[in-house]
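re: that chain from earlier
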Amino acid sequence: MDQVVLEWIGYVASLIVLISLLMSSLKKLRWINLGGALLFGIYGFMIGSIPTGLMNVGIVMIDAFYLAKMYISKEFFRILPIQNNSEYLKSFVDFYEEDIKKYHHSSNIGLEESVIKLFILRNMNPAGVFVCNEYDKKTLEITFDYVIPLFRDFKIGQFIFEKQKLYFLGKGYNRFVVFTDNLKHINYLKKMGFVKSKLKTKVCYVASIK
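^ sequence. v structure.
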């Protein structure tokens, strides 16, 4: 194979491995790293560098092992009510403030007027915060929905919106509404089954609790 083509394969493989290290999600990191290591391994064998090829085959096997473990292992999720004067919540928001602002205009949650205020635990780790106000007698307005980068793989959203339906129905609510113009937030809402709508002439995203 042409030497220039070989060099470009090496460059692309190196770039993929570097990109994998930028991922905040461990699952994404493993998948992208696996792809980079696979390409790097092929590159190593093609240029006759057996150590490079074998090392990257080993990396592929390690990534595959941990990915299989992530998909097979059963995870524990739980919701935990938040007290209005929670010092832990204040510390949590302060720590993730810069990341929170990527999805919310403000890190001010405003618990006093909220009817739903929950920590979301994942394997007993505080993974997110979910807060709602009452929009009307049957509708909850989600005012704060944040998951830390490490657990941002949609499993917490699925847990809240699918596994906890009886919790919200038991409190008398059958619909969620979100008012947002943040594109990242909108993409997340669509993946969670929300649809674009209008309430009182304002654009919003709505999901039924069934």
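The chain has two domains: 3-72, 77-208.
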